[in-house]
Amino acid sequence: MSVKINLGAWNSVFAVPSKVVDEGLKFSDGVKLKVLLYVLRNAGGQLDKNSISAATGVNVTDIPEALEYWVSMGIFEKADGDFTPVQAEPVKPVQKEEPVQPKQQAQTAGEIARDVNEAKKRFVVTKPQKPDYVFTAQRLAVDNELKILVQEAQAALGKTLSNSDTATLLMLKDTCGLHLDVILMLIQYCISIDKANMRTVEKIGVSWADEGINSVEAADDKIRQAHQASKSFSIVSSAFGLKNAGSPTKKQLEYSSKWVGEWKFSQAMLREAYERCVDKHNTIKWNYIDGILRRWHASNILNLEELREFESKTSKPEKQSNASYDIKELEKINTLDYIE
After folding, report:
1. Is 77 helix (H, G, I), strand (E, B) or coil?
2. Do the beta carbons of residue 291 and residue 300 sit within 8 Å?
3. Residue segments in the chain with a per-residue pLDDT below the cut of 70
4. What predicted TM-score, i.e. pTM, was given to this entire model?
5. CATH number 1.10.10 is the correct assignment for the domain at 133-214
6. Tens of pLDDT along 149-163?
């Protein structure tokens, strides 16, 4: 006699640890569950990010974060790049109580101050740190404001944000203290300058936080200044004949804003200063050009006609050998006037 029991879909099953449902389900998302189920289903096989992505539809860049999440939840453990199930912890032997050590001598005020200073040196953070993906996922599950921020950012950028992108927004909101509307304005600004990526959003956002820009009015003024500085640099680079100038440095933007926006120099005057600099140094020296333009600005010279007239009045004919001043020394002084 033969017996055959058809269990249908139950003929092929695989185990899912209860801990996944008991502890890991609340803060996990579809991406993490897809990766987990596929890995458990294909346990024992050789898997890589591309094969997991092809089978689950999960972005390749999100797979390491998903696996690390299940490591943090105690489902897997990682060693030398390999993931294995977490083994039950062995029963620890009862340890004998250590004898109570005598109390150390109280520190002096000087020693306490020294230890505090050393602690500050060890724990100084040079830049805000993004939260890890576990904390980010937990916050996203309960923080309605963060949910709105992520939804608005995805709509503006036209893509689904990765866990790392979401962590950036959370850092700007919580750690940097930027208001929701300010972050959204920042994203729109990055889109307007063709840098619609979270790396630029993070860089500028941290800079805004350092400058205390945390209101719609302040952000709007900052964006207006940035656009004006960009226009000023375009005028300067055109006057200098710079093609494909690329992204200007902070100092170049400051110079351009001062020369065009504050001192109101025309392209002709900018070109004149540029040519004098190149004639002198055979290269562009922005600080040297700034020295030339500063001298003209101090003399209230705004156009080439006024410059020619000014220089004709201030120039002196060379004397004979019995002159009471040194020609070379005068030339040296005049040259120094052009240097910042």
Report:
1. strand
2. no
3. 1-11, 24-29, 81, 87-127, 245-246, 316-340
4. 0.51
5. yes
6. 999 999 999 999 999
Residue 6, pLDDT score? 56
Query: What class does CATH assign to 13-85?
Result: mainly alpha
Q: Is 243 helix (H, G, I), strand (E, B) or coil?
A: coil
pLDDT for 59 equals 80
Residue 287, helix vs strand vs coil: helix
Whats the size of the chain, residue-wise?
Answer: 340
175 near 136, Cβ under 8 Å? Answer: no
What is the Cα–Cα distance from 76 to 67, expressed in whole angstroms?
Answer: 8
The residue among 142, 201, 135, 127 whose CA lies nearest residue 167 is 135
In angstroms, rounded to a whole number, what is the distance separating the alpha carbons of residues 262 and 260?
6
Which of 207, 203, 261 has its CA nearest to residue 236?
261
C-alpha 44/C-alpha 17 separation (Å) is 16
**Alpha carbon distance 333, 30 (integer Å):** 73
Q: Name the residue ranges covered by the structural domains of the chain.
A: 13-85, 133-214, 230-337
How many Å separate Cα 223 from the centre of its chain? Answer: 17
For residue range 196-214, list pLDDT tens digits in order: 899 999 999 999 999 999 8
